[in-house]
Design brief:
Length: 494
């Protein structure tokens, strides 16, 4: 049965796609296609990665940023210094930075943005970034002094995330639909369900981008993505969903294809707070029923990197735990029986739109059926998934990629959608944040990785690959994705 489902999933992704003549694009513009449309454009107001894919480094900027090699680089802060004890940061801001409405960006905007991020009504998905802050002083318009209440080894790293961008109090109320930032491109128009257009901001503090206009087109269907690329309707797609089409796309002389890495841990998330998944034996049984290699093949044509915990193999503190929960249907059945389900059980599997989730869900459901677990699949659109699964925890199982870098800390959050709590894991994370040496940090990270495997919080599948397809002549796209982003300032036509 599993082999049959896998074959059906793969064949469904391979269609007869005929290329038509490419439409010549102006050398001053680009059409970037991506799978998901952002629900809003305020990166501090929602968890969807698509928000940052459009806005990060384009519309909005933070004090610092991550470059394509995961290195922290200056952004709105041209330099910074840290006290010897690591408890105070002094940021020196760019004097020529201004918002798209012409308002100068000052230290007051930084204080406003960070205070807003931790306010009681804040919807910022990454409040951990700002929680170590004790005080923010603004001794001059171009100087920000941040004092911490506790040492945080990852404080500067967090400030490079899309959730720590700087807003103007004057325009922040319309950030969701008409954003005003400091980046190299400013918002122009948004035709919901289809496309969003940005235009170059000539008042940007940095070097003038080569492109004058950029359009993001949103194409959810994997085969439609491939058709649009072959027809020339997309200048690039930053991560196609139809990985099985890679050979066909590589054979097209008008296109270039790169297969890179993301930070996206793809998991079968389980609702640990809901019976019967509140029993670790049931969770482990489900995990042992899943052949991750076959899910990798069915979901992303084998381009994913297998993982055994929620941690990126790109990180130096990664521990290979893929062998800790081996594929063993016989033992899985025994565990279910031990937990009181000798005749199996029924669960719901609510899936968001990406192809890896929909295709992977079919394969996972077939595998669970082999141990007597009847899985009812329910496809959801992205806003529905965010509301029902992520916010309201109305699910048994789901499949999703967590694409933020270094996001193992989500397992320590109160009221997170996994419904998981562990004092042992919290203690490991306290050691991670307070670590003063690489050795201390490495040991704490290893303990955290092992803890969530021991508790079998979720089923850890693979790292989501980044398959980028672009017209020949377009340069500057990121091959890898150290965080969700499609920076436009580096793009140019050769």
């Amino acid at each position: 049965m599993i082999a049959k489902v896998l074959k059906q999933v793969l064949l469904a992704g391979i269609g007869a796609l005929a290329a038509s003549g490419a439409i010549a694009q102006g050398k001053d513009s680009v059409v970037i296609c991506q799978t998901l449309e952002p629900p809003i454009l305020d990166p501090s107001g929602g968890a969807a990665a698509a928000i940052r894919e459009v806005t990060y480094g384009n519309i909005f900027e933070g004090l610092v940023a991550l470059d394509r090699n995961s290195k922290i680089i200056p952004a709105l802060a041209e330099s910074w210094e840290t006290s010897a004890d690591g408890m105070k940061y002094i940021f020196r801001l760019r004097k020529n930075a201004k918002f798209h409405d012409g308002t100068p960006m000052t230290s007051a905007d930084v204080k406003f943005s960070f205070d807003r991020a931790v306010a009681p009504d804040s919807k910022n998905a990454q409040k951990w970034i700002f929680q170590p802050i004790s005080e923010i002083a603004t001794p001059a318009p171009d100087v920000v002094e941040i004092t911490l209440k506790q040492f945080a080894s990852d404080f500067l790293y967090g400030l490079a995330w899309g959730d720590a961008v700087i807003f103007s109090e004057k325009s922040v109320t319309k950030a969701a639909t008409d954003p005003v930032g400091t980046g190299p491109f400013r918002f122009k128009s948004w035709n919901r369900g289809d496309r969003l257009t940005l235009e170059r901001f000539d008042g940007w503090w940095g070097a003038k981008p080569a492109l004058g206009n950029a359009t993001f087109r949103f194409i959810a269907d994997p085969q439609a993505q491939v058709a649009a690329l072959l027809a020339g309707d997309c200048d690039a797609h930053t991560n196609i969903g139809a990985q099985e089409a890679v050979p066909q796309l590589k054979a097209d002389p008008k296109l270039t294809v790169t297969v890179g890495r993301t930070e996206g841990e793809t998991i079968v998330a389980m609702n640990n707070a809901k019976a019967p998944l509140n029993d670790v034996r049931v969770r482990r049984a489900l995990a042992m029923a899943v052949d991750r290699k076959l899910v990798n093949e069915g979901a992303v044509s084998g381009f994913g990197t297998p993982i055994g915990s929620h941690f990126s193999p790109n990180h130096p503190d990664y521990v290979d735990l893929t062998g800790e929960t081996p594929f063993d249907p016989k033992k899985a059945k025994a565990l279910l029986a031990e937990a009181g389900f000798p005749n199996g059980l029924s669960l719901t599997l609510r899936l968001p739109p990406p192809a890896y989730a929909r295709r992977g869900g079919e394969v996972v459901a077939a595998m669970l059926a082999e141990i007597g677990v009847k899985t009812s699949i329910e496809p959801l659109e992205w806003p529905q998934w965010l509301e029902r699964v992520f916010r309201n925890k109305d699910f048994d199982l789901t499949i999703v990629s967590h694409v933020e870098p270094m996001d193992l800390n989500i397992y320590t959050r109160d009221n997170y959608y996994f419904g998981y709590k562990s004092e042992a894991l919290n203690a490991a994370f306290q050691k991670i944040k307070s670590a003063r040496s690489d050795a201390e940090r490495k040991a704490a990270f290893e303990a955290a990785q092992r803890q969530i495997v021991q508790d079998q919080v979720n089923i850890f599948l693979f790292m989501l690959p980044k398959v980028t397809v672009a017209k020949k002549g377009l340069s500057g796209l990121w091959e890898h994705a150290p965080l969700p982003a499609t920076p436009l300032a580096e793009l140019r036509w050769q």
